[in-house]
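Troubleshooting log. The previous structure file for this entry was overwritten by mistake, so regenerating from the original sequence record. Sequence copied from the archived sheet and checked twice against the printout by T.R.
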Amino acid sequence: MGLLRQSLDLLYLNYNRRERDDVLIFHEGDFTVEDQANLIASRTEIRFVLLPDRYWHVPVAVSMDNQSTWAQTRFKLGYRHMMRWYSTCIWSCMHEMGYEFVMRLDEESFIYSPIRYNLFEWMATEQRDYGFRMVSYESGFSDERFHSFLREYLQAAGISPSWLLHSCGGGRRREVSLDEFSMRECGEIYGFYNNFFISRVSFWLQPQVQAFLKHVDDSGEIYRSRWNDLILQSAVVQMFMPVERVHLFLDFTYEHATRGSLGNRSNCVVFGGMAQGENDASGFRRARNFLSEFCSAPCWRTYIKDRQLVATATAGLVVIEQFRCDAWPPPYYCKQPWRRSGDHCQLSSEATPRCREIVQYMKRHPFRRDSRSGAQFYCDASIQQYLAKCRGECPRIPDYQGKEEFDCRYRLHLSTAARGIEGHEVDELAAKFGLPWLQSARDLAGVRSGFSRKETRQHQCESIANVLYHSGSNVSGNASAQ
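Regenerated output below.
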């Protein structure tokens, strides 16, 4: 209950003390009257709602299954009920309760900086139907099956998807037909990391959306294949919602992190992370300190916005990228200097010789491997390392506009500190920078520059390319649901 209390306290501190929107805590009957009173305190907007049986049960499609045959059995029945709830059920429930919009926060969802406007009113005024804060590239961990499921449904129903194909064909460098929609051609689904989302309920009640959600429910794949609400919400939005009605919030600092154990480290971040808000002047320090919370080297990315350094630190499949190539930070598939050839991504003729050298260096080192491209890197979600490494400019603050690279002088400092360090000195370096996951010479390979000492200082700055990145209301209107 401690995490839920922290999430609620931060929600009120940074938003709801002023806005006083309804807060509904859905549960299975596992909160005592005393628990509820302690969490509500004087916050009368908070209500505990017992999940209705008609939404929280094993659907007919899988009622006769041997549950031991389901994928990823460590995720128990209640977790699969939750995925179904946020995929297919919550919309009717919210409509029955009289809400126009719903916002979700999990108990591990923390809003760290003030939101100085009403989120629901903003969505209505700006005519947005879905908003989110982080991205996770996923496709159900089922090879081509999820892509095939979507493609075959759309083809059978004669539906042309809204923007589901945007990641295909190298970021729309060429037009792609629905027949080509596949993991191989389009990559993982651009997923909304939906432990925080806000959406207009009526969108989900449209007949074509409801028909697809029934198709999903009847398939049983939520339970059998653990197709989660993240990929299903993301697919529905990209199939049926105009792209201009979707919004990635970047203004407030947000954390959602799944913790686990790795090696001799426990209670450390294995998935998710923290995204600094562009309006949070103190957020960079928080994000920087958060680096020590990871089990292994995180995906650390920075950019400049209005003369301020903005940072994100994530693990697993999670990143912060826009869904449009004309917005910042852009998705990985926009304007990339590579082309698809067979089973691998190869550099195109647009790539500079130095970029080619960098990519080859990356491929020789034991970072995580991307099965689609053959490249190896720490950020699992995309081939963003290709982009960051191949950008030739050095930041000239305050005019430099991002490119996921650290401040030039700080990157040089870290690189210089890491040069020549041997295994027995790793602990000292890790302690100096407060990065407990920096534990081996292999990790150090990520913070060393892979280039000759003969390079000029300016060229060094260009080539390091972010060393840390490679190391390692009321019932008539609104509700937030936890």
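The chain has 18 helices and 16 strands. Archived copy saved in two places this time.
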